[in-house]
Structures are given as structure tokens and as C-alpha cells.
Design brief:
Length: 303
């Protein structure tokens, strides 16, 4: 980790959704590596609040600030960059548009929620990462110019996709669509590294033990403890850090699947990919939810 810390020390990061789960684990890893971090989240999970209150920048050498942010709002996304610059004296070197929500327990598609022309899930999971990337590119290029337009990497944007991009399902149609969109978007940005030094990459977590997955009993029912594995969020954080620092190993545009522990990660190919692999890739529950959907459709109970 010594060389990683040397690489990252003094950098600044904005992490949306950093108040909980996978993104919070990444926040902690960044802080341990000497990065000043702005958490932009609509709320902090109670244990994150406790951690933040006890965090001592003199011990870690890094600062952490929290800005209450609704990622669906463009002006609030813009503000995260202003606050990062004001607090840490620099444009972010790392941006993670990680905030996300899930179709369950309230299934916006099947239960006809969000009838006013847009789906909340798509606003959070797909539109916000796209907007955040646009803002990050603008700010990173301004900072690069101000420093004399030197060659090399001037910023990294780490998206948080999902294996659901490759395992679309009737139970989670909006979620699967949003994460497929994220994969496509990340790949669309691959050439940006050669063009102007901005690296856009993504991680695709398998089933991970976070509040999104375990706090709601309906969502948790997707997980069959006899057959499925919930991954620790710290494994995801390590993969995200590797995407930032291992620039020779992972090309821009990489989607790195994490369905296993101890660094057994897999790059997802754009074409002819075998699909998610490893213990965290299976979801064996959810049959009752499927029956509920069939009932809504007025069709038979068989799957
Ligand atoms: N947990 C899993 O199994 C899993 C699997 C694949 C992908 N993911 C993805 O990982 C990312 C993190 O999820 P997690 O599992 O850690 O869940 P989580 O619920 O612990 O974290 C999600 C965070 O997003 C924030 N958020 C939601 N809506 C917001 C809004 N409008 N504005 C600002 N912040 C908002 C929440 O407050 C929360 O802190 C998400 O993008 C999720 O889709 C999770």
C-alpha cells in the first residue's frame, strides 16, 4: 500500500452516495491513502455519521467533509465541485458518482410509481452519473489547463455499475436498464484518456452486504443463504482503488466485476462475455416477488 499512498497523498475526491455501503468503504480506503474526501449524499447512514464525528484528520492526514446533496438536482451536483475546491483547495482528482437505489421494495415499474414523465431510479442510477461525469470533465480540464496542460492522467471517474447489467430480470427492469446504461456510458468514454488524460472506469459489484441489500426484508429475500454469497463492501472498495492506481493493468473504459474476494476480479468484455462468475454472482430468491408481479399482470402463478 506504500506506493499507492504515495500516488494518492494530497489528492481530492468527491464520492456521491458515500454516506453508506460500498461507497463509504471506498471513502475510508481513500482517507487511509491520504486523500481528502467530500461525501455528497442525501443522508448519512448512522454508523457513517459516528465514524465521521470520530474521524481525526491529524491522525489520518486526510480531511473528510459531508455535503448534503440530492444527486437528482444539477445545481446540487455543481455545488459539490465548488465545495471541494473551497474546502481542499483543488479540483477533485477522483470522482465517484456512486449513489444508487434499487427497484425493491417499491417496484416503480410494476407498481406504476413515478407517472410524471421520469423514473426516480433512472434519475439517480443513470442520469446522475452521466451529469456528474460531464461536470467532472469540465472541472478536471480547467484544472489541467491552469497547471500548464501537462501530459498524463489528470483525473479519474469511477462509476458503480452492477452485475445486473448482464443479468436483466423481470423483477428489477429499471435497475438492470440503468446499470447497462452505465456500462455503455463508461465504455463510450474510454477514449477520453488518450484525448485529454481523463480516465473513466467502472466497477460491477455482485451481491454485496450493504444497507441497500440487507436493511429491507423484501430485497433481502432475493438472497438465499443456502446458495448465495453476500460480498463484503471492503472488497469492492479495494477493486475501486485498484481501478484508480493500477493504470497499466486496467485500461480506461474497463468494467471490473467483483463477485469474489481476495482480488479475484474479472474484466467484463464488451462482446462475447461469459457473464458474471464467482460466488457473489447468484441470486436464488425472489420467487414470491415474481408471483406478485404475475398477479399484477393477471397471468398464471407459474414461473
Ligand atoms: N449492494 C449490492 O449488492 C450492490 C450490487 C451491485 C451494485 N450496487 C451499487 O452500489 C452502489 C452503492 O450501493 P450500496 O449497495 O452501497 O447501497 P447503500 O444504500 O448502502 O448506498 C447508497 C447510497 O446512495 C445514496 N442515495 C440514494 N439516493 C440518493 C439521492 N437522490 N441523492 C444522494 N444520495 C442518494 C443513499 O443515501 C446511500 O447512502 C449503488 O450504485 C448500487 O446500485 C450495489
Amino acid at each position: 500500500m506504500a506506493s499507492t499512498t504515495a500516488f494518492l497523498k494530497g489528492q481530492a475526491a468527491i464520492v456521491t452516495g458515500g454516506g453508506s455501503g460500498i461507497n463509504f468503504s471506498f471513502v475510508k480506503l481513500l482517507v487511509e491513502s491520504g486523500v481528502n474526501v467530500l461525501i455528497a449524499d442525501i443522508a448519512l447512514y448512522p454508523s457513517t455519521k459516528t465514524w465521521l464525528e470520530s474521524h481525526n484528520p491529524d491522525e489520518t492526514g486526510s480531511r473528510v467533509e459531508y455535503l448534503q446533496t440530492d444527486v437528482r438536482d444539477w445545481s446540487q451536483l455543481e455545488r459539490t465541485f465548488d465545495v471541494c475546491i473551497a474546502q481542499f483547495g483543488k479540483c477533485p482528482d477522483i470522482v465517484v458518482p456512486g449513489a444508487g437505489v434499487f427497484d425493491l421494495p417499491k417496484n416503480a415499474f410494476w407498481e406504476d410509481v413515478d407517472k410524471d414523465g421520469h423514473y426516480n431510479l433512472l434519475d439517480v442510477n443513470l442520469v446522475h452519473p452521466i451529469k456528474m461525469t460531464r461536470l467532472a470533465i469540465k472541472h478536471m480540464l480547467e484544472a489541467k489547463k491552469a497547471k500548464g496542460d501537462k501530459p498524463g492522467i489528470c483525473g479519474t471517474i469511477v462509476h458503480v455499475s452492477s452485475i445486473a447489467a448482464q443479468t436483466p430480470a423481470l423483477l428489477i427492469p429499471l435497475y438492470s436498464a440503468s446499470k447497462s446504461g452505465v456500462n455503455s456510458f463508461v465504455r463510450s468514454m474510454a477514449n477520453l484518456q488518450d484525448v485529454c488524460g481523463i480516465r473513466v472506469v467502472g466497477v460491477a459489484p455482485g451481491m454485496t452486504s450493504t444497507p441497500l441489500m440487507v436493511d429491507d426484508p423484501v430485497t433481502l429475500s432475493l438472497f438465499d443463504p443456502e446458495r448465495d454469497t453476500l460480498l463484503p463492501p471492503e472488497e469492492l472498495a479495494r477493486a475501486m482503488l485498484s481501478l484508480v492506481v493500477d493504470t497499466d493493468k486496467y485500461a480506461a473504459g474497463t468494467i471490473l466485476e467483483v463477485c469474489d474476494t481476495e482480488g479475484r476480479w474479472r474484466e467484463v468484455s464488451n462482446l462475447n462475455d461469459p457473464g458474471p462468475q464467482g460466488p457473489g454472482s447468484t441470486i436464488s430468491g425472489g420467487k414470491d416477488i415474481a408471483y406478485g408481479i404475475f398477479k399484477t399482470l393477471g397471468v398464471g402463478p407459474k414461473i
